[in-house]
Amino acid sequence: MSLEQQVMMLTRDANRTAEEVELLRTSMGQRFDTLEQRFDSLGRRFDTLEQRFDTLEQRFDVLEQRFDALEHRFDTLEHRFDVLEQRFDTLEERFGRLETDVRLIIELLQN
């Protein structure tokens, strides 16, 4: 094989290799673009999830405030019932004394 033929074969091989490299470069570029799009999509999905989490967190804070207010109201209601029970106890005591006083008056009037 002559030197000229060898050069032509090497040139063809070099051209094929250059074409293959170009195809690989194009393919890798497309794959990179696809990965970049997927990464951007994941970023948007993450942002959406983060916004949803923030919304849930705000709703939880509102629920917590409402629960605290309800708990305070319940404590107030409990206190009012305690006062009411004390007043009923006092009233029962007074009725007991009144009954005793009425019996004494009846006994005194009968004698």
The global form is: rod-shaped
Radius of gyration: 47 Å
Low-confidence stretches: none
Class per helix and strand makeup? mainly alpha
Spell the H/E element sequence.
H
Taking the sheet with the most strands, its summary is:
none
Q: What distance separates the N and C termini?
A: 157 Å
Q: Please provide the count of β strands.
A: 0
As a percent range, the share of helical residues equals over 70%
Please give the count of helices: 1
**Mean pLDDT, nearest integer?**
95
Report the β-strand fraction as a percent range: under 5%
Question: Would you mind describing this structure in some detail?
Answer:
The chain is built from one helix and no strands. By secondary structure, the protein is mainly alpha-helical. The longest helix has 108 residues. The protein is rod-shaped and about 160 Å long.
Short description:
97% of the residues lie in helices and 0% in strands.
Task: Please give a handful of descriptors for the protein shown.
111 residues; mainly alpha; 1 helix; 0% strand
Give the helix/strand layout:
Elements: H1 3-110
